[in-house]
Sequence to fold (1481 residues):
Amino acid sequence: MDSPDNGPSESNEAPESEPVDCSEEMPVFEESPLITNSEEIPMLEELPLIKNSDQEPALKSPVKTVRIKLPPTCLQTSQEVKSDQESLDNDCDVGDIDQDIDDALDEGYMGMECTLERGFSLNESSIARDMRMERYSEVAIKYKQGSGMSRYRQALKHFIPVRKPSKEKDEMPLDRTGLYSFISYSWITSLMWKAYKTGLKEDDVPICSKYDMCAYNTDRLEMLWNEEVKKMGKDSASFHRVVLRFIKTRLIIGILIFIFTLTLGFIGPTIFMRYLITWLSSEEPITTGLIWTVGLVLSEFVRILMFGLVWSVNYRTGIRLRAACLGLMYKKLMKMSTLGSKSIGEVINLFANDAQRIYDYVVLGPLIIGGPFVAVGGVVYILWLLGPWALFGMLTFLLFYPFQYGISRLTSYLRRRTVTVTDERVCKMNELLSCVKLIKMYAWEKSFASSIAEIRSRERRLLEKSAYVQSISLAMAPTVPVLAAIITFLAHIGAGYNLTAAQAYSLMSYMVRVRGMLHYVPYSILAVMEGGIALIRFQGILLMEEISPYIGKPRWKSTAISMEGATLAWDAVSLQKRKKKKKKSKNDDASPAHKLLANSSVQEHTDVLFNIDLKVKKGELLGVCGGVGAGKSSLVSSLLGHMRLQSGSVSVQGSVAYVGQQPWILNATFRDNILLDEPFDAKRYYRAIHACNLSQDIGVLPAGDFTEIGERGINLSGGQKQRLSLARALYANKDLYLLDDPLSAVDAHVGSHIFQWLIKGALKDKTTIFVTHQLQYLPQCDRILYLREGQIAELGTHLELIKETEEYANLYRQHMESIAEEDKKREKDSESTIRTRQDSVRSNDSLQNGVHHNSPEKNPEKEEKKDQSKVPGQLITDEKMEKGDIPFAIYHIYIKAAGGYIVSSLVILTFVLNVGSTAFSSWWLSLWLSDGSGNTSVTVGNETYISENIADNPKQHFYQTVYACLIFAILGTSLLRGFAFMKTTLLASSRMHDQVFVKVFRSPMSFFDTTPIGRIINIFSRDMDEIDVRLPMTLETFVQNIWLIMSSLVFVCMVFPHFLPILVVLAIMFAFIRKVFRIGIRDFKRMENVSRSPVYSHVSTTVNGLATINAYGKQEMFTKKFMLLFDENSCVFFLFNCAMRWLAIRLDILALLVTACTAFLSLLLRGHVDAAFAGLALAYAAQLSGIFQFTVRLSTETEARFTSVQRISNYAKGLVSEAPSIIESKQPDEAWPKYGRVSFRKVQMKYRPETPLVLHDVTFDIDSMENIGVVGRTGSGKSSLGVVLFRLVELTGGSIRIDGINISTLGLEDLRSRLSIIPQDPVLFIGTVRYNLDPFDNHSDEKIWSALEQTHMKERISNLDLKLNAPVIENGENFSVGERQLLCMARALLRNSKILFLDEATAAIDTETDVKIQKTLKEAFKSCTMITIAHRLNTVMSCSRVIVMDSGRVAEFDTPKVLLSNPSSLFSKMVAAADSSWEKQ
Fold:
């Protein structure tokens, strides 16, 4: 490690020290820290306790620290254990270490022996979070299938008028609410008030209701789904039908209450308002008018309460279905070994966006019946009120529904296409974020950004079409009732009938109510269509074929493994040709990778193991070897049950522990990664630590084994990750151990330590399958299995195979000869080429506590101050939740992105024209009705009198013409408004996407190291979905309603000027309520945004670790954690929706006062105000009753949705970028570097200003075409050379020159594109083989085949059906790790750079292929300068010169021969230490 508090080790190997004979008597304990070095960890038993706000114990900070003493045995490294062959044959006497640990525990030297139920939390907030999670377990109940009315016992309790609240303050109050509280949402009032007073924190939010919890509802849905599959079969099973069964009762209740609400809405205008307006023109007593007024107000009041009840039922139904669907989806994932044709991005998109669509399906979908109900009611009412001629107007309604149906079908079609492209974009983003290190080092940012831009462009085109169609639907819905009223009145009057104010305005008022219902129709149809699509996608996952269990139990108890004639296969990606389309859109072309994979499916299986006959006895150590792609890892997977058994049988006895070739690391503490939810046992734990040689590594971690490990183990070296994985396996204490090449990530002497202490020692009584490329260990195995092309080529003891078989003997001889060859030059170099790290060039060797915490939501100036308060050992920064109002700057950013203030003003003008034309039509009708007959005299018989029929008005034609023209004005402005709004909002979302994408992708590696992928994916999935789809819909309705309210108030005030003082009072009350309680709504939305990221991260982690999770049987642990995380998100999501409805009911009641005041003013001013204009005022006042609260609520919802804009804006503005890609004035020649000379001069580097230097005055020169080896101990700075060479971190001092040019003056693209790296961790992208070797078609097929031939992959690729066009699935899982590494080498060969950096590039390759590869590298790169960090002797001993790094300095730099000639040189000592390790084999 470059510094104690600055990051992971360069590799995992312990420092050099004098050898100690293991057979000597162990000395008495000496004081040495296992857990801490510069940082000390508190003994948990001595931590003082305080009470937090919930009266739960919490850790006080700072706390008293105690240094922990350990027996010296625990601290020994393999360099300290130099014993003769005899003692090694006795397995180093594992009992000694056990006794030392026992003695240490007895004497109190180890302070960490207490059992940790939750693990250790790094800070007070983490402890509070852990305790909150425990409360979920206490509150949760198990689902039990009920029968009869007993199933509804809990729900029926809500009909009790008043109930006592729960005594537990942290439980959801809703579960104990009575009817009043349930309808009025008063149970959430205390939270809303607290939000206004002090703001909301996580601790203030109650835990999720036990009836809404993910586990409870998942169990119920799973039961129904299993019944469906059992009854109908997989082919006929319908997830949609299961969902309807799941929500059936609550759905019916919600619909019935909704119909009752609609009935009340019908009664108000058609009965009470009509008779009130009629009374205004009559001479009836005032009591009659008072009855109609009170009836109008009371019916509206009950309607408001019942409508609130509808939402209350639907919200809870939706939250339960959402939890059940995603819980069932997660449980399905846990039953699969791979995702098949599905990508991680697609799965995350299901959890992100489709979850919202499932919720909307239940909440908004049932409201679709409102349209037909009010339409039918309208037909009946018009027939009764005006007669059959008026039914012409109702044709508008009848035509509207087919129109909406067509719109919905088109929307559904466009949505399906959009979702597919969105999946592709999220999947691509997930892949790029996972591989960002390689992309940066290869300078592929622009190229990959262009592929994202291309996908986004296709997505935007589909979004535009969908948004325009949806915008037309939204614009037409409120205009349909107005158009229907216009046509009705024109037809009625045109037929010669009279029209009174009472008839006109009662009908118009009802039409307003119809408009309110029709407002929900587009949303409902969209919710139903999108929900249906989401359910189909969910069903696709649920019906994915699971691996059939095929593992049986051996017939004999002494047998651990039995395979008889076993032929096993992997799922293979097959490409199915689609029918050619008549016309192919040029714009819809997919990226090269996805063109081919668009039709991929997982219907075929590829056999990889053939006719395997194998029996392994209990306690046997079986070594497995073979070439790349021989089937070694597949053999391990077959024993885990992850393959498909084509024929034969596979039997395994006992529990299994698995160590994969690529370690899977959790974002948890070092200790929790080892325990994996097992109870802490000190003896077992420290024995695992020692056996895996982790003592020194833990000693230099900033918080010891309580140090937080980042996602994918980013702050650990490759060897540390592998040894942590081994320690996890040993601690698990299983019967059978499957070790897939576990020693490739460590150097020889550390590998020797692990082999002797772990494999031969701690596991001596266990059955062990040991896959390895390091053949020197095979002689000590009980038997050896040699695989070739998926078949057992040879099986027996080492001596038997050497004597009787030629192939294994030649392989082993070749391996040993390669060692002996270098022995002539004083060979050994194993530690010198110490396996450095999986993320070596990522700046990980010093990343541990020295990362740049480049959080986008922080103020950079406060960065240093914030880091100082950071808890030691905490790596991942918590996602910050913004406080307070959305600043105007955020709205300004959105307006600018939409085209600026002028464009936005023009768009708003289209709303004014649209609403103005509608309002003008109502005013024109009032004018017409007020004019009446125009004082026309009519003669009937012999009598002449003034007509009261407006059909007799001499200006009737003029009135009719203007009234009819308004139809076209309303339609035209609606279409114009929809188009303009769609264009501007999508322009804004696209610009913001492009800005944040560029900013994120241009961020330094430290940002990606400290920010979970789930958090970034959250921005590009859910937040982008908010800005693309949901914010525009909300904003469009909000702006429209603002103008509707203004027109309504203008009409009311024009008719009743006395209303103005009342309006002022009501406006003040509205403003107060909105100001006070929008804070709670906004805070709930922010908390919901933040709570999503951990869910996505957990899903991503789970998918990547499916093999390990299943092997250890930890499905329940991970499922439980997912459900806890999801319950946290569900809780705040539910509270956010309930808070908006809380506000809506109160605003509705206040808005009802407007109707009441208008009605009473009409009552009091009868005779002073014309009945026609009084009717106009009453109709628009009734409109206000619904629309006012909805608009205020929309303003709050719009602000809440702008939190997504704020989050994206904070990323776009807050992230610090790397140096420019290209500096025009400093661009080097095309041929640069021509010679490949590298010069370091006094190079200093630190990862942050406040952290220590990790490179100290490093100075050396590398000549053209030299092959330089880099060696050194853990933390010596080897990988830091690569970090500064590629400028992943900028220098603190000094300079680096390549061919005389200071690289700090160049653009990053100019620099990195001229260098090549073959990383330790092979990276393949989703696509084809050709796409992975040459992503941008720069090379011909001949060159690609030549590169494959040089890397010995030509035969493998040519055997594939589609050869270069053969598919590569996510992470390259359809190739072995070794094959992936060879493909990465072929990629570097094609790049043909003058300078090549190899970071242990042959780690996962067998010895025979390694020899060929080394030869290829020497020939293919003979004109290149090579800098090699390696782990095999020949790669360094054959180098021109060797750099020996020590504590960030160049300790030695000379030829291997010169360095070896000096026995006191560090290089000689490292070789001597390696010698002792080799001698043990």
Residues 1-94, 107-123, 574-603, 824-878 have pLDDT under 50 and may be disordered.
